[in-house]
């Protein structure tokens, strides 16, 4: 079955629903959990047109995200796990991490968008369409 499960989190409170599903999968398969969060570079938001030194802000975002992932590991007593904060486009970074770490299942949250919102793409949709392994989209209940 699954040996390495990647749990892609946005670090919101809704992520608890994704972790709950991941824990059930992990218990059933004894797989190793890899918790990840992807930060998009701040320069993406400005298209590189504004000459700002955003390095310190980017580092603070990364440190804050690493601390939140560590708290989740402690809260859920995840002894057989890894955590990584990645920087880049979420779909691409999730695919890259999955390939580099022999991930055989990616678990992501999904708000169950319909129609044009789904066609325009969400992170879950992007992960699904480029993944070389199984993807489980956990429907986030509002």
From TrEMBL:
The species this protein was found in: Hahella chejuensis (strain KCTC 2396)
Entry-linked InterPro entries: Rossmann-like_a/b/a_fold (IPR014729), Universal_stress_UspA (IPR006015), UspA (IPR006016)
Superkingdom of the source species: Bacteria
Assembly and binders: Homodimer.
Keywords, sorted A to Z: Cytoplasm
Compartment(s) where it occurs, according to its Swiss-Prot or TrEMBL record: Cytoplasm
Family the entry assigns: Belongs to the universal stress protein A family.
Domain UspA: 1-139
Protein name per the record: Universal stress protein
UniProt main location, coarse: cytoplasm
One GO cellular component term noted in the UniProt record for this chain: cytoplasm
Coiled-coil region list: none
